[in-house]
Amino acid sequence: MNMASxxxxxxxxxxxxxxxxxxxSLDCRAEQLGQYGQQSLLECVIKTTQNDLRVRVVSWKKxxxxxxxxxxxxxxxxxxxxxxxxxWNDRNMNVSLLITNTTVKxxxxxxxxxxxxxxxxxxxxxxxxTAKYSNPTIVSSPKAITPKTxxxxxxxxxxxxxxxxxxxxxxxxxxxxxxxxxxxxQTDGGxxxxxxxxxxxxxxxxxxxxxxxFNASGGRExxxxxxxxxxxxxxxxEQRKELDMSTKIVAPVVVIGSLIAGLLFALLxxxxxxxxxxxxxxxxxxxxxxxxxxxxxxxxxxxxxxNVA
Length: 309
Ligand SMILES: *[C@@H]1O[C@H](CO)[C@@H](O)[C@H](O)[C@H]1NC(C)=O
Ligand SMILES: *[C@@H]1O[C@H](CO)[C@@H](O)[C@H](O)[C@H]1NC(C)=O
What we know:
Helix content is about 30%, strand content about 35%. By secondary structure, it is of the alpha+beta class. One 2-acetamido-2-deoxy-beta-D-glucopyranose binds next to loops. One 2-acetamido-2-deoxy-beta-D-glucopyranose binds near residues 216, 219 and 221.
């Protein structure tokens, strides 16, 4: 074989190899997101110009564990995994993987290998899972906070993934997180329980605290405000006690006083009424006895004899 024919053979071999790889490709989204408790799709589609393409092998793996395999015309799969296309066959270019119930364990790096009559390809996919945190709850201990005995506010948010941070703010949006680190506990299912304790009372002027759940990129996902109930200050308490005492003294005085006043009034009314009652009853009598004869006498003698007759 001379040099020229070697070159020609090489060119032919390269072009065949090139044509083979060009005749099919595997399109996968390199980074895919799934939601905890939902279905997730790891999308991979064969692209080809050949219309007689037949799939011979599909192998979806995660860390060398085969999850879904099509080989020699048969599909074998692990629980919870399947082809996204319900009636997938070797002429179907959509080899996407479906995870039926996404959990934290599904997170990781997947590979999809496809072998066909016109070529083969393997692609890697990074799969991330998210779970929404609950609205934070805030509990105050003690229920009413005094400036002298510091209290704590405990903020909690659960059931989220990945790990987030709890951050505190006052009513003017000033951040107070520096002395309130977030504690994160991971449950068996992989979800996080966050809690953060903030010592309050020193700044008794703050009446509203806000606890927010922040993701890794600093986005606020949830927040809950908390209105602080301050116990009255000691001077205020004493003033209130004095006030209470005086009302305790004043109250009976007022009651007794009004009772006395009422009695006096009743007595006065009774007296007046009894005078009034006596007056109308006595006046005519007196008028009858004394008034009539005198008037009659004064007016003339004629009337008196008429009246009598
Ligand atoms: C592949 O199939 C799945 C399930 O039917 C579908 O949601 C997805 O859009 C398909 N992808 C393409 C590129 O057709
Ligand atoms: C973080 O939260 C913000 C605001 O809710 C959101 O827009 C963003 O997509 C989140 N980022 C990540 C990485 O989840």
